[in-house]
Amino acid sequence: xxxxxxQREEDLRAxxxxxxxxxxxxxxxxxxxxxxxxxxxxxxxxGEVETAERSGTQGLGITVFHEGRxxxxxxxxxxxxxxxxxxxxxxxxAAHVQPDPDAGLPPxxxxxxxxxxxxxxxxxxxxxxxxxxxxxxxxxxAGEAVRADPRLRAGESVAVATEGLWxxxxxxxxxxxxxxxxxARWSVMLAKDEGGSTSAFCQSQERRVDALTPxxxxxxxxxxxxxxxxxxxxxxxxRGPVLFDPRTAMSxxxxxxxxxTGMAQFRGMSFLRDPLGRSVxxxxxxxxxxxxxxxxxxxxxxDSEGIAGSxxxxxxxxxxxxxxxxxxxxRKLGMASTGNAxxxxxxxLTSTAPSGDFAAMLRMLDTGLVVTEFQGGKTDxxxxxxxxxxxxxxxxxxxxxxxVTDVTLAGQLPAMLNGIRAVGRDVERLGAIRTGxxxxxxxxxxxxx
Length: 449
Fold this sequence. Notes:
- By secondary structure, the protein is α+β, with helices and mostly antiparallel strands.
- It is built from 9 helices and 18 strands.
- The protein has helices at 9-25, 80-95, 128-148, 215-228, 246-259, 262-267, 327-332, 358-365, 413-418, and strands at 29-45, 48-66, 69-75, 152-170, 175-193, 196-206, 238-244, 285-290, 312-316, 319-320, 346-351, 368-379, 385-396, 399-412, 420-423, 428-430, 433-435, 438-446.
- The strands form 3 sheets. A 6-stranded antiparallel β-sheet has the order 3-2-1-4-5-6. Strands 10-9-8-11-17-16 form a 6-stranded mixed β-sheet, covered by helices on one side. The protein has a 5-stranded mixed barrel with strand order 7-12-13-14-18.
- A hairpin with a 5-residue loop joins strand 12 and strand 13 (385-396).
- Helix 3 packs across helix 4 (215-228).
- The longest helix has 21 residues, at 128-148.
């Protein structure tokens, strides 16, 4: 057993089954999920340990369905008395809510009693000594960067390890569990000159330690990003092309995916109404979902209802082929669950249009704004009105001229999605989403008058 975990996988399954059995005795159908997680974190700055944490969480949640009504309750304890109390609480809540004809467990034949379960756990060194050594190494590299460039200052260097267990049981006899791991490293660097100061970070997150970005690269990238922000100034308001770097481009993919969720469709809170079979983005774009990617950060063999997802196109040639549905949202739309009760699995945006690395994308931009960071804004999910305050880089003739601050971008998501000219090969991943830089051909850039 890992040093980060204090519970056993079989004990979590037994607790989930016990909760379901108690609900069934009270005349209900039910599902119960149990989780346990252990986390270790060490942060180092200037050769000193700033943070050394070891924490753990656990909990059991049960949802009961009785006479068309739904009740849910949770507890942090797994002992029999606590489970009995939480089941009773869920039953009491169900007795006081209005019936919902779409509530209830999914059909038993839709459950993933067996089937592929992608590996989302990898053994690895996660003890405090390893984390301390990793954070200290990044801190030393940061110190070398500061000595080489007096404009730089070292922020914190952080190493985090997480291991977790999750079990799900239902009154249909479903009972499966998974074990997962997550390792993360990040470096924060600051830069200062006579014109002001700026900060930046670079992070790597993987299921396995040996897949993390090397510490030298993390620190170098954070330092380069901090330096690039020096000398930032406003630019005149204008319309023109905008290049979202991979980190900010992911928000466009997330907005698109959010518009395709079942509840957004049912509630009319989506700027893409009745999208199946419709072209909603540039014809060179594909968006693929893959729940079964080995060690993927958003992989899984089944969702919190026990239904498996599938590897599928969400967009093909800019046309919508799939939605993200739970059993409830599926029923409300007259459709079957897609196994997405917890959101989307690994998404990858690709394009058949000409592109290249980041330097090539700058040449395609020619003259315009590169967005490197959002500073606040909003998306109206119902209309697609999109506004963000941003920082970035100004480019002329395909070359970076200076950093940009105090700029506001505005657009309509349908027009932005259809106006995507290219997706870069400089692919990065943040959580469930992979994409390269995204070049949008025309947006409003609001700067100085």
